[in-house]
Structures are given as C-alpha cells and as structure tokens.
Task: inverse folding
C-alpha cells in the first residue's frame, strides 16, 4: 500500500491547481462584469428636479406642503388638527 505524505498526492496538486484557476477565472469575470455595467462611466447623474419629474411631484408642491425644509431634509410636522366635534348631534330618523 502506498502512503500519501503530508504534501498530498498528484491528484491533490491537480485539484488545487484547477480550483485556483477557477477562482481566478471567476474573479476576472466579476471584474469584467463590474467594468462593463457598474463602473463610474456607466452611472447616471440624478438631481432633485429629475427625480421629482420622474415621480410626478413638482418642487413647489413639496415645499408648499411643508414636507421638506429648505435644506432638503425632513422637517418636523405639526400634528394634524382634530376635527371639531359638536356636543349635540342632529337626531336621525
């Protein structure tokens, strides 16, 4: 019987070489995909006006409702006023 030493046999070296080549190939493929689709050259600049046009909200309407402060952050909103209730409700038949 042939014993395999601490360094392993030929099949283990071949397996290790194949796995390293596959990992290197995957890293190269991921890098290529990033470069083709996600690199800074493929990013679109989006400003507030373009975003508001896209979702159908105008800048004036947002500020008129008080949803945004002039800096663009959410402002504290006062609680909504309760509807006035009358003590005497008309009788219904």
Result:
């Amino acid at each position: 019987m042939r014993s395999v030493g601490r360094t392993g046999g030929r099949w283990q070296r071949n397996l290790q070489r194949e796995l390293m080549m596959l990992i290197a190939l995957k890293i190269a493929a991921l890098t290529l995909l990033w470069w083709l689709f996600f690199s800074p050259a493929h990013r679109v600049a989006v400003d507030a006006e373009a975003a508001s046009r896209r979702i159908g909200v105008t800048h004036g309407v947002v500020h008129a409702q008080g949803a945004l402060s002039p800096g663009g952050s959410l402002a504290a909103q006062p609680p909504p006023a309760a509807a006035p209730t009358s003590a005497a409700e008309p009788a219904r038949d």
User: Anything to note?
Assistant: The CA atoms of residues 8 and 86 lie 90 Å apart. The mean pLDDT is 76.
